[in-house]
Amino acid sequence: MTATISGAGGQAGPGGPVPGRGEGSTPTVHGTPSANGHTVPLLDAAATTRCRRRVHLDHDPSAASAPRALPDPALEQRRADVREHRARVAETVAGGQAAAWRAVPEGLPAAERARLTGELVAGGAGVIGGAVLPVDPAGRRGSAELLVRVPGGGYVPVIVVRHRITDPGAGAATTLLTSPFPQLAVVDEERKVRSQPRDLLRLAHLTRMLQTVGWAPAAEVEGADRGGVVGLDADVVVWHDLRAGHWPGDRSTLEEYDERFADRAAVALAAATGAEPLAEPSRVLECRRCPWWPTCEARLTAERDVSLVVRGDTAVALREVGVRTVDALADLDPLAEPPVPLPGTPFPDVVALARGWRRGLAVARRVERVPVYRADVEVDVDMESFGESGAYLWGAALSYPGGAREGDEPEGYRAFATWEPVPTPDEGRSFAEFWTWLSGVRAAAERTGRTFAAYCYNEQAENRWLLSSATRFAGMPGVPPVEEVREFIAADWWVDLFAVVNEWFLCAQGKGLKKIAPVAGFRWRDPEAGGENSMRWYRDAVGMDGAPPDPAQRERLLGYNTDDVLATQALREWMTSRAIDEVPLASEL
């Protein structure tokens, strides 16, 4: 069985409901000739989960010189990680299906690889690795990590991804990785499907390509219109029925895909041929990582577009009733009925955000005094991880607002790190040292009758790696039991300052630490400080690309982590000082 997918249909507004993760490309009109004489733009599955305006810009020749963001420094790392993951999966499947396994060589032109894939299909290979499908007349292009033959003839796709596709539970249809055939799937009593819409849409994309070229099973064949996914754990194949109605309106994945693909294909064709654009810019969640954001931001700012304050479907709904600009939103009566339903944020807050944006304010207070838990002994914590591979650094800054005492640990920053490439058992050693130190500071405070608190910014990442580290390195000296970590996370003195900001401030320019801490007067020493850049620095720091480890990049990472923990300290002190009076109250806006 598959999980129910939430969200609106693919044509609901400029952004669509399921932001994609693909990277930008040079605008192109390359494609396949169509019956009407136009060149059909080539689209891969990622187009169905991307913002519609991004699809436009990707295919608009006139956008070739438009400003774009600098390349994502972590992109190459993610690609390398995916390649390694897929290679390991292919090796496992090949070992389990030695007689059936055939692979298409890498490094050849796509057309040649598609031809070789066709030869293997014609020969009835049981499992085809690295398959490339022929571009179809609709402009679809794509490849599958595996094509598996089903009884009765025909092939279904299996894709290999580097994210989690199941959660603890029951109900997923799975097979062993070494037996990746849909007819062998059984209901798994230990796993339930984790919703990953982009995986389902890619399977649908490949299924339509297989049907077009005549390689798919007949509709009545067992396993037809099914697709498999191998996730980060690479222990099973999770099978999805692409005919099942798990999307809004009881649409099947294939129906949802067909609607989205037709829409994106129309957007791309209009862009490629210079026709009236079918997608205009609007700020959505995807904008944060989109290479076209500088182009869209400039236009949205010039037009003072309402999506700069309220994004996504809410912005679309407001435009439909004539509220097209931030100024128009700011001029509304906050005590009146909202012009459209506003999920999440109360209407007075939305109007206040618009008024704050108009005045150039980053934040406004909801209350006179911001309630922040303070203690005699305080520790600010920040963790650095390398993708899904592991947490290589736990940084902590110790301070004594209640005054230091004889025998106390010295104030200041300390780092608990491993410089062996993660994952590594040495990660457990650094985590154990961090936990032992933190527990000692807390115990000393309790022993001397003082209060204690530890702080982070957006606890989701820290909590995840606290629990993961305790689980993965259980039994190592100094590693706490998982239950002890759970008690720490649940305690009142483990304080998420992001939650404080989210509850007590209106933020017109974002709620990230690097947006909020500068309001408190804090500045990072490294102008390139950021999570994505730290991925590149880490590669150099541990010598992941074959070069010797770079000590300078290790120091850079330590400086970056130091500033992150000092930023949370500065933010907390600012929120509980008289300086907070300089921040306007939302009610004053």
UniProtKB/TrEMBL annotation:
Q: Which organism is it from?
A: Pseudonocardia yuanmonensis
Query: Which top-level group of life is the source organism from?
Result: Bacteria
The chain positions of domain YprB ribonuclease H-like read 495-575
Lineage, top ranks: Bacteria, Bacillati, Actinomycetota, Actinomycetes, Pseudonocardiales
What is the designated name of this protein? TM0106 family RecB-like putative nuclease
Q: Which InterPro entries match?
A: RecB_nuclease_TM0106_put, YprB_RNase_H-like_dom
Which residue windows does the record flag with biased composition (Polar residues)?
25-37
What Pfam families does the record point to? RNase_H_2 (PF13482)
Residue ranges, compositional bias (Gly residues): 7-23
Annotated segments matching region Disordered: 1-40
